[in-house]
Amino acid sequence: MPKKLKVLALFDAVRPVTLDQDLSPELKTADWKTEAAVLAALDTLGHQHEQLALFDDLDLLRQKLQTFTPDVIFNLADQFRNNRAFDQHIVAFLAMHDIPFTGCGSTGLTLCKHKGISKKILSYHRIHTPRFVIIPRGRRIARPKHLHFPLLVKPLKEEASYGISQASFVETDDQFRERVAFLHESNGGNDVIAEEYIEGRELYVSLIGNHRLQVFPIRELVFREVPPDEPKIATYKAKWDEAYRQRWGLENRFAENLDPALVRHIENVCKRIYHLLTIDGYARIDLRLNAQNELYFIEANPNPALAPDEDFAQSALKAGIAYPQLIDRITRLGMKTVRD
């Protein structure tokens, strides 16, 4: 019988909180469905657990650790002061204090968040990526001549398709300049990446592990009602707006009609990506597969959405791992991860 653990579930809050904050109202909302599901799984597993939310005061964590000494922190804190760029700093803080935690370390989070750096690393290792250009804030907006339309223009470091809409798909220089300028000016300003649009299937590949990896069954975002001449892109609405998804026939499901040899190739490429980007714990790799069965890396998502109805947990379930067992495996893996 595996040892029962003491687990501190670490969340992020959107406003200041106190050490003894009652989180039950938040845990009943759709925005906190992952947090609620993880706590329920820890209950099912019989692990002793407490929770803490952070907004802008890491000293709360120090205070919490004086009264509750966990074997591991289940890390679901992916922002600090409402800034998702700070997720790597939270785990760096934990690593510096030799506190075991689940999921990816600071190096992997940093490399994956910067879409340009991750693509440069993988291109160097001969993994296909779309051709791209980075346009920092304050720089002249100009498209390099080697970059061909259509292009996707999106924030360089955002996640979960923030900043991606149908207007991100551009086919002229005027549209390109307009979209880049919009992103430079919105949400406090964003550096921008523009990459060539890859026509093809949108595949999501979930992996778990550190050195030895398990790849779960491949998922796909399908666009049933989108006209053939319209771009098929995973916009923010395409991922998170249920009414929009129903209107356009968008569905996340298991990928069909993939040759077994192609599946093995996809799995091997994703394992290489995982290691090259120094990912720990668990991740989802987003890919495009064109009509010639050429595979293109789009982005890597360490610590992906973990609710039971999301792609990662659905893929694990298809592989025979029920949700509580998935949470247990992630938890125990976090205890064994060596942090440099």
Question: What is the ordering of alpha helices and beta strands?
Answer: EHHEHEHHHEEEHEEEEHHEHEEHH
According to CATH, what is the topology of the largest domain?
D-amino Acid Aminotransferase, Chain A, domain 1
Relevant CATH superfamily of the largest domain: ATP-grasp fold, B domain
Helix content: 25-40%
The parts where pLDDT drops under 50 for at least 5 residues are none
Average pLDDT works out at 95
Distance between the termini: 31 Å
Largest sheet: 6 strands, antiparallel
- By DSSP, the count of extended strands is 13
Coarse shape: globular
Q: Helical stretch count?
A: 12
CATH C-level category of the largest domain: Alpha Beta
Domain tally: 3
**Proportion of residues in extended strands:** 15-25%
CATH architecture of the largest domain: 2-Layer Sandwich
**Gyration radius, rounded:** 20 Å
Can you summarize this structure?
The chain is an alpha+beta fold. It is built from twelve helices and 13 strands.
Keywords:
340 residues; alpha+beta; Rossmann fold; Dna Ligase, domain 1; D-amino Acid Aminotransferase, Chain A, domain 1; 6-stranded antiparallel beta sheet; 34% helix
